[in-house]
Each structure stands twice: as C-alpha cells, then as structure tokens.
Amino acid sequence: MGGGFFVTDSSHREEYEEGRVTSFVVIACIVAAMGGLLFGYDIGISGGVTSMEEFLTRFFPDMLRQMQNETGRETEYCKYDNELLTLFTSSLYLAALFASFLASSITRLFGRKVSMTIGGLAFLSGALLNGFAISLEMLIIGRLLLGVGVGFVNQAVPLYLSEMAPAKIRGALNMAFQLAITMGILAANIVNYITPNLKNGVGWRLSLGLAAVPASVLLVGSFFLPETPNSILERGNKEEAKRMLQKIRGTMEVEHEFMDLCAACESAKSVQHPWTNIAQTKYRPQLVFCTFIPFFQQLTGINVIMFYAPVLFRTIGFGKDASLISAVITGLVNVLSTLVSIYSVDKFGRRGLFLAGGIQMIVTQVAVGSIIGWKFGVNGEGSLSPVDTQILLGLICLYVAGFAWSWGPLGWLVPSEICPLEIRSAGQSLNVSVNMFFTFLIGQFFVTMLCHMKFVSFWAAKTFIGITVDTMK
C-alpha cells in the first residue's frame, strides 16, 4: 500500500490532474459527507442513552434490577450485561449488513445519488421513530431503519467522494467521510452530556431524535447533488458525463480522463454479475483488501469505545458526570486525529499509517488492560484513584488517536479506491457488509465478554491488532 492507490483508471493521470479543485466539488462532497455525520451520531449516541436511568426505567426495567447483585453491591465488570439492551445498539448494524447488499445493486443501476436519497429517508424515519418511541418494538424498528440508512449511505458516499474528487487530493477529500463520522460521534457525546439533566424524560428522546437534523440535511441535499461522471456513464449518457466531468474539474480539457472513464465503463458493462466477477483471480487483491481491511478494522475494538464510552468509563470506576465528559474528550481526540490523517495520507502513503497506528493501538490496549487488571482484579473488587482515572483516560485517548489517523479513515478510503469500475459497487458492498457484520458482533457481545473475561478483554483486542499489523508487513 505504499504511496497509495488512486481510482483514476488511467495512464494519463499527470495530464488531467491539472484541473483545479472547484467549489462545486467541495460543496457536493460536504453534502455527501453528511452521511458520515449521521453514521457517527448513531455510533456515539447509544452508549449515553443506555446509561440514562429514565431510558432504562421505561424500556429495560429489569436492567436496573440486574445492575445490582443479591447483596445490593454493583459488580464493576457486569453492570450493563444485558443482551436485550445491547440489541438496542447492535440491531442497527445487523440491518445495515443486509441493506448493503440491496444498496450495491441500486447504486450500480440507478446511481450514487439515489442510494444517498434512500439512505437519508431511512435515517429520517428511524430518528423520528426513536425520538417518539412509546414501546420497545417501536424503538427497535427505528434502529432497524437507521441501519438501512447506514447500509445505503456507507455504500454510496465513499464511492461518490472517490469519483468526484481530483486524483491529487482524492485521499484527503475522501476522508471527509471519516471526518464527518468523528464529528458525528463528538456531537453525540456532547448531546449525551447535556440531555441527562433535562426533566420529564425528555433527555433520551432528544438524544435519539436529534439524528433527524443531519438526516434532513442529507435527504434534501441529495436531491440537489450532481451525479458522478462514472455513474452517468454507467447508464449510457456520454455527453452528459463529459459535461459533468468538465464542470467538476473546472476545465474543458478533460479528454484523457474522459477516455479512460469510457474505457473503464465499457469494461464494466461486459460484466453481468459483479459479485461473480470479483471472485476471479485477477481481482483477488481487491477481494482480499475489501474483506480483510474492514474485518481487522473492527477487531481492533474501536467501537467498544465509540458505542459504550460512557458505559465503559462507568464500568471501570468513573462517576456519572466524569464518564460523560470523558466520552466528549475521546470524541474530540477522534476528530483532531482524523485531521492529522487527512493532512498526511497523500504525503506518506497508506501502508505507513496502517502500521504506525496499529502499533500505537497495541501499546495502549496492553497498558489499559494491565491497569484495570491491577486495580480491579478478576472479581471486579477495587477502585480507581483520581490519578488512575487520568492515566486511563490518557491511554484511551492515545488509542483512539492511533485509530483515527490510521485504520479509521483508511478502512473506508482504501477499499473504495482500489476497485476498478466493473467491480466497484460489489467491492464497496463487501467492505460495508463485512464491517457491519463485525460491528454487530462487537456491539452485541462486548459487554457480555467484559463481564466474563474481565480485563483480559482489552488484551484480546491487543491480539487482534497485533495480527492486523503482521498482515501489513
């Protein structure tokens, strides 16, 4: 991966990179990246909501009784071990897994813009259902609709950004999607810090319902977004595709790039079944990358922090307010570190960032697991001093930073840019589905794993990261 891949489908890149970066492209990509903001908000909001007592009282009353054992003392490792509660978090990603397969065909046949519109509509519907939920069934259906939105948006947006961006800044502009994800997580953490103090059970409703705001922006914006030249070509309109390419490049001199896109499109049209085609020997590298990058990305354990930050901080001994503000701090670190990746990805290449970020995550996870094991032991009987909590928070922030400038954005960038047009929708769908499957597993089972494996859970994450780093060498 040294130096990075670019989806230019061209041997003339140096000739058509001269087109300027137009405001048209930047605005279109910002609107498209709203899908990442929604995805991030959904990732970050569930942990805070599931730690709100009014939310638990209404939908999971057994959970409150379960949080204390027979002697009335909370067990630190098992406070939130409830499969129905974790299903609230994980059901979204199970729906996204299945939606991504449908999204692949729609993205290829009807364009990236249509998939983003469907995703925005599903997001909006799910957010409204969650915000006005009066039953557990209504709550879960809302989460499932949010999952459909995730499946469609995560399928379409990375492709859209890759195809709209000029090659010389494709890496940085494509990472606007990951930056939007981190901003969504940060926004969710801030909302979770504010809303628990609201009266009359409004807090959790506001936390869940505010997802409707970026959903509306994406839905309305998708109607005005231009389609990518690649997608227009796929549907047979060469003249319109050329005009769009001239518009987004800010120059009439696009012949070389347009010829390359036409050649790639003709090759893509000869493929009747992209899913069968991606399994061919010549596409084996793309198949491997689109499968194993999201696989290892999730097994680094990052979504344990993103999903359950408030829950996790309370489990390891932070107070209620301290756990929420700590989640905000990690969210801010996530955003700032993603900016580092945007700056460096086209300068230093993908492979170096993968390796350095993986090593950073290994060291910090080992340290976190060791400190928790030392302070709480196997039985979860112990406490943290103020110094201990500051050290743990610092280590977790370093871990989040390592992910945010390496495996986080690159996990979406590389699979979206290495696939030629004829297998691009299938490759991205594979990337999304593998990502969502393992996100679902982590969301559903980590709290149970923490309860039974104790501090060893963090060492297990270290092992997965180590395997990941080994594969990159």
From TrEMBL:
Topological category with respect to the lipid bilayer: Multi-pass membrane protein
Transmembrane portions of the chain: 21-41, 84-102, 114-134, 140-161, 173-194, 206-225, 287-311, 323-345, 352-372, 392-414, 434-455
First-listed, main subcellular location of the protein, grouped into a coarse class: membrane
Record keywords: Membrane, Sugar transport, Symport, Transmembrane, Transmembrane helix, Transport
Major facilitator superfamily (MFS) profile domain ranges (all copies): 28-473
Top-level taxon in the UniProt lineage: Eukaryota
Subcellular location: Membrane
Pfam families given in the database record: Sugar_tr (PF00083)
Keyword Coiled coil found: no
Record-linked NCBIfam families: SP
Family: Belongs to the major facilitator superfamily. Sugar transporter (TC 2.A.1.1) family.
Protein name, UniProt field: Major facilitator superfamily (MFS) profile domain-containing protein
Annotated source species: Brassica cretica
Phylogenetic lineage: Eukaryota, Viridiplantae, Streptophyta, Embryophyta, Tracheophyta
